[in-house]
Amino acid sequence: MHQRIPVLDGFRCIAILLVLFYHLTTPQTTHYPHNDFFPGFTRYGYTGVFLFFTISGFIIPFSLEHTPTLRLFIKKRFLRLFPAMLLCSLITLLIARNLDTNHEHPAAHEFKNLLPSLTFTNPSFWTIITRTPFHWINGSYWTLWVEIQFYAIAALLYYWRPQSFFKNFFLAATLIGASKYGPTLLLHNDNPFLLNWKYCNELFNLTFNIGWFTLGVFFYQLYKNNKKTSPFFISAMLIFLSDIDRFQIPIPSITTLLLAILLFTLMIKNSPLLLPLKLPLITRIGKISYGLYLIHEVAGLILVNKYYPYLGPLSPFIFILAAIGFAELSYRFFEKRFLTSR
Prior knowledge:
Elements: H1 6-25, H2 48-65, H3 70-99, H4 114-119, H5 123-130, H6 142-160, H7 165-179, H8 182-186, H9 192-203, H10 210-224, H11 233-241, H12 251-268, H13 280-287, H14 289-311, H15 315-340
Helix pairs in contact: 1-2, 1-13, 1-14, 2-6, 2-10, 2-12, 3-14, 3-15, 6-7, 7-10, 7-11, 10-11, 10-12, 14-15
């Protein structure tokens, strides 16, 4: 197994805490108990997902270079992703069916919705195939489908021509990033082809997030080349900028971009400023962040709302501590077995 980079777990800790506070302290439905009790900036915690994408962009080329075959890479990714997804999806289903008495999370009550989650695919595919509506068990699982698309493209490009991986990836990323604009510029809004093209972009939603992965790949190239200037910086920035127009207020995305650039630049320079992110507690939370991410949303919202009358504004913090405890047990006694067996 290749050597782990501890500071990346520190980055993951930042990302998962952003996401946790976003989902558990920001009003999600009309009955949500916190209202405006928590500071307004927690509503921008969704940007933690983009930081996760950037980390993946860095770590996947690193993993590919330490994995000799495509078959082994697929096996390793499957053993890392599937067991925890199975466990957390089933627990979410059980919590929803037994505790979500008001049916605030109807998708989490249906067994059929395990299918998109356990296959890491867009529910819309299953809706098209079966003509029956499918949804994610947890809404936040949409990011796993984006990750899978990135893994597939990066792996195919790497094992096709390892020596040309970076050049080919940045070319592919540029085409993917631009693909959502070409027909839009050339065709009228009511054109059937354009409507189908937009629908395909929604199905294969990597097109809207490729910039974050590209940023991570760019920094890995810098890291690998021992801080030498990369010729792909302009490409990475253009691809990223093509993504932020989806946001009415792009300031949170730009702030996350600057944070990612700062963190990875300091990492490449081995700056002592990042020493706090190497503390054992911080890196441990980052290490178990996958299970924490999978369990937190629907289960968290149900439990926080259910026990808010007794715990008040402390309820999200108590759930976060409980979720960290669950993720630690899951990683230590369940997930790790699959990691060590590969």
